[in-house]
C-alpha cells in the first residue's frame, strides 16, 4: 500500500538557534525536497513512539520507506526488546517499492555484534539511500550502522552533518525528543526523570486536612496513566501512601506495568495499602539501612521488594535505577520529596495539571516544598514550555534542564585514560550484559533471535526469543489443559517482556499449573534454549567465543538467581550457563 504524506506544521521540541540553510554547492535538494524529507523524518519519530505504554521504555525506532516519487510505501516501529525491527517491518510492507527507494530513520539502527538484522534488511531490499535523524548516542553503537550501510554502497545522509536546513532542523528536534531518555542515559548516566503533579488554581495539591481526590479531571487522570505507562518506575513518598492510599497503576486492560516505588526512611507506613498488593503489579520500597526490620519482613511476605540505602536521597535512588537499566522514571511525590528531587538536579521535565478550582487554606500543601529561594531571580525557569487544554484543566509542561541537542560522543576508555590517567578502567576480565541495546546485549534472553527447537514429543517448534521458550516451559508437561493454554499464551506474547509478565502472573494465580520439578529443571531448559540460539547464529557463536578468558555476568541488580545482583551477591546462573556453553563450543568446535 502506498500513500502520500504532505508536509505538516513543524514539531517544536527544543529551543536553539536554527542552522543556516545548506548552500546549493553542497546539496542538490530543492526547498520542496527539504520540506518533504523533513516531514518523513518527523513521521519516523512520531511512529517510533507508538509502543509507549505497552512495553518498558527502550530506544525508540521508527522507519519510513519512500519511493522516488515521494510516496510512503512502508513504515514500522520497534515494539519492544527482542521484537521485529522497524526497518524489517517497513521493507516488508513496502515490498518491491523498496528498490531504488529511500529509508528515513529517526535513530541510527542498532548495528552490533550478533545483530545486523536491520541493516541487512535495508540492503537486501534494494534501498538506495538512507536518511538518519540522529546517530546512536550509545558509544558501542554510534556510527556502526552508518558505516555498514556505506560499506554496502548505500548513500547515507545524517541530519545535521550531511543535511542542514531550517526544516531539517525541526525534524532533528523531533528525533531528539522521542529518544530523550536514551540521550540522558548516554550523556548523564541517569534515567530521564519526570515530575508530575496536579494543583488547584491557587497552587494547592490538597486541602488543609490532606484530602486531594480529585483535583484534576478524569481526562487529566487518563493522561497521567499514559505518563506512567511510559516509565519504568513511579515514585512516591511515604506520606502519599499514608494519606491517599493510591494504586499507582498505569492503565487498564494490560500493557506495561512499571514498578511502584515508595521512598521512606523510617518505614512508618500502614500495614495495609493498595500498593502492597503485588499480584499483578510489582512494588518496591526504598529505605534507610537497618530501618524497622520487622516491617521489612512483613513487606517481603507480601511480595514487596525492599532495598536499603546508606543514605536515602533522590540522587542515590536515580543512580541505583540507572544500574537497574531503567530509562525513564516518574515522580508523583508530595511537596517535600519534590523539592528534594528538584534540589538534587535530577528532574528533566515537569508536567503540571492546573484545575480551575480554589480551595484556599494557609496550611494547605503546595506541589513543591522549600527550595531556599529568597528572590525571584533565583526561580527555576522551564525551557520549551507547552500549554494544552485537557477537558477543563490546563496542562503545562516544560524542561527543567536542557536535553542535549546533539547526540553526545562518549569518549572511549583509552581516550579517557589519555586525558586522565588516574581513571581506573573496568576490569577487562569481566563482561557484563543486561539490556539488548547494551554492549554484548545479544547475550540477553530478550535479544531478537528466534529459536527453532525440538519439543518434548520430538517435533520442532519456533519461539520468538529464548525468554518466550524459558517462561512457557514452567507449564510444559503438566497434565492439565489449562497448563497448555498457559504455554500458548506465553508463546504468542508480542515481546519477551510481555512473555515474562504473563508467565509470572499465571505462576502467581495458578501455582498448581507449574511443573513440580521446575526449580531443578529450569537450568536444563535454559541451557537447551541457549545452545540452540548460539548454535543457530554463527555470528552469535563467534561473539560468545570472543569472550574467552572473561567472566560473563548478567548484571541484573534484582534477579539474584539468573543475575549478579546489586553488590555481586547474585548467583549469576545465566552468566554461568553461557560460560559453560562457551567451554562446550571450544571443546567441540
Automatic annotation (TrEMBL):
Protein name, UniProt field:
5-amino-6-(5-phosphoribosylamino)uracil reductase
Query: What's in the keyword line of the UniProt record?
Result: Multifunctional enzyme, NADP, Oxidoreductase
EC class, as a word, reads: oxidoreductase
Entry superkingdom? Eukaryota
Question: Does this entry carry the keyword Membrane?
Answer: no
Write down the CDD domains for this protein, in alphabetical order: NADAR
Give GO MF terms, alphabetically: 5-amino-6-(5-phosphoribosylamino)uracil reductase activity; diaminohydroxyphosphoribosylaminopyrimidine deaminase activity; NADP binding
Its pathway? Cofactor biosynthesis; riboflavin biosynthesis; 5-amino-6-(D-ribitylamino)uracil from GTP: step 3/4
PANTHER family membership: 2,5-DIAMINO-6-RIBOSYLAMINO-4(3H)-PYRIMIDINONE 5'-PHOSPHATE REDUCTASE, DIHYDROFOLATE REDUCTASE FAMILY PROTEIN (AFU_ORTHOLOGUE AFUA_8G06820)
InterPro entries per record: CMP_dCMP_dom, Cytidine_deaminase-like, DHFR-like_dom_sf, Eubact_RibD, NADAR, RibD_C, RibDG_C, Riboflavin_Biosynth_HTPR
Give the E.C. number(s).
1.1.1.193
Q: Name the GO terms of the biological process aspect.
A: riboflavin biosynthetic process
- Where would I find the CMP/dCMP-type deaminase domain in this sequence? 35-157
Where are the annotated coiled coils located? none
What transmembrane ranges does the database entry give?
none
Amino acid at each position: 500500500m502506498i500513500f502520500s504524506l504532505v508536509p505538516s506544521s513543524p514539531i517544536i521540541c527544543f529551543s536553539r538557534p536554527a542552522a543556516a540553510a545548506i548552500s546549493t554547492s553542497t546539496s542538490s535538494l530543492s526547498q520542496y525536497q527539504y520540506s518533504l524529507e523533513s516531514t518523513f523524518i518527523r513521521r519516523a519519530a512520531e511512529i517510533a513512539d507508538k509502543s509507549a505504554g505497552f512495553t518498558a521504555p527502550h530506544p525508540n525506532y521508527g522507519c519510513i520507506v519512500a519511493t522516488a516519487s515521494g510516496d510512503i510505501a512502508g513504515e514500522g516501529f520497534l515494539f519492544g526488546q527482542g521484537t521485529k525491527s522497524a526497518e524489517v517491518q517497513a521493507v516488508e510492507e513496502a515490498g518491491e517499492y523498496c528498490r531504488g527507494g529511500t529509508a528515513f530513520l529517526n535513530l541510527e539502527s542498532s548495528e552490533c555484534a550478533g545483530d545486523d538484522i536491520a541493516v541487512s534488511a535495508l540492503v537486501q531490499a534494494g534501498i538506495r539511500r538512507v536518511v538518519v535523524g540522529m546517530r546512536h548516542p550509545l558509544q558501542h553503537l554510534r556510527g556502526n550502522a552508518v558505516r555498514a550501510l556505506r560499506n554496502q554502497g548505500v548513500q547515507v545522509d545524517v541530519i545535521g552533518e550531511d543535511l542542514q536546513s531550517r526544516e531539517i532542523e525541526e525534524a532533528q528536534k523531533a528525533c531528539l525528543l522521542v529518544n530523550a531518555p536514551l540521550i540522558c542515559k548516554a550523556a548523564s548516566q541517569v534515567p530521564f526523570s519526570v515530575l508530575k503533579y496536579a494543583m488547584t488554581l491557587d497552587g494547592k495539591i490538597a486541602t488543609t486536612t490532606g484530602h486531594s481526590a480529585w483535583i484534576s479531571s478524569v481526562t487529566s487522570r487518563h493522561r497521567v496513566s499514559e505518563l506512567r505507562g511510559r516509565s519504568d518506575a513511579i515514585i512516591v513518598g511515604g506520606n502519599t501512601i499514608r494519606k491517599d492510599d493510591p494504586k499507582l497503576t498505569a492503565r487498564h486492560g494490560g500493557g506495561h506495568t512499571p514498578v511502584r516505588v515508595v521512598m521512606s526512611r523510617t518505614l512508618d507506613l500502614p500495614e495495609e495499602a493498595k500498593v502492597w498488593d503485588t499480584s499483578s503489579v510489582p512494588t518496591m520500597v526504598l529505605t534507610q539501612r537497618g530501618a524497622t526490620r520487622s516491617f521489612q519482613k512483613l513487606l517481603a511476605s507480601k511480595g514487596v521488594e525492599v532495598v536499603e540505602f546508606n543514605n536515602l536521597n533522590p540522587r542515590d535512588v536515580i543512580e541505583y535505577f540507572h544500574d537497574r537499566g531503567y530509562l525513564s522514571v516518574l515522580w508523583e511525590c508530595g511537596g517535600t520529596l519534590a523539592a528534594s528531587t528538584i534540589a538534587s538536579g535530577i528532574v528533566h521535565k515537569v508536567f503540571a495539571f492546573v484545575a480551575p478550582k480554589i480551595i484556599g487554606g494557609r496550611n494547605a500543601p503546595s506541589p513543591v516544598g522549600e527550595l531556599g529561594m529568597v528572590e525571584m531571580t533565583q526561580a527555576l525557569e522551564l525551557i520549551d514550555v507547552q500549554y494544552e487544554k485537557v477537558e477543563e484543566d490546563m496542562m503545562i509542561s516544560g524542561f527543567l534542564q536542557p536535553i542535549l541537542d546533539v547526540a553526545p560522543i562518549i569518549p572511549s576508555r583509552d581516550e579517557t585514560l589519555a586525558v586522565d590517567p588516574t581513571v581506573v578502567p573496568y576490569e577487562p576480565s569481566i563482561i557484563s550484559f543486561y539490556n539488548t541495546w547494551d554492549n554484548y546485549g545479544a547475550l540477553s534472553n530478550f535479544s531478537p533471535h528466534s529459536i527453532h527447537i525440538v519439543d518434548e514429543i520430538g517435533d520442532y517448534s519456533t519461539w520468538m526469543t529464548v525468554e518466550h521458550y524459558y517462561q512457557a516451559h514452567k507449564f510444559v508437561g503438566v497434565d492439565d489443559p489449562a497448563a497448555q493454554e498457559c504455554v500458548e499464551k506465553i508463546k504468542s506474547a508480542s515481546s519477551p517482556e510481555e512473555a515474562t509478565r504473563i508467565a509470572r502472573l499465571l505462576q502467581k494465580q495458578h501455582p498448581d499449573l507449574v511443573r513440580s520439578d521446575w526449580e531443578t529443571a529450569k537450568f536444563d531448559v535454559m541451557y537447551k534454549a541457549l545452545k540452540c540460539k548460539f548454535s543457530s547464529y554463527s555470528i552469535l557463536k563467534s561473539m560468545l567465543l570472543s569472550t574467552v578468558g572473561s567472566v560473563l555476568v548478567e548484571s541484573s541488580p534484582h534477579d539474584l538467581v539468573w543475575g549478579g545482583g546489586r553488590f555481586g551477591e547474585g548467583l549469576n546462573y545465566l552468566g554461568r550457563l553461557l560460560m559453560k556453553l562457551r567451554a562446550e563450543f571450544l571443546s567441540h568446535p
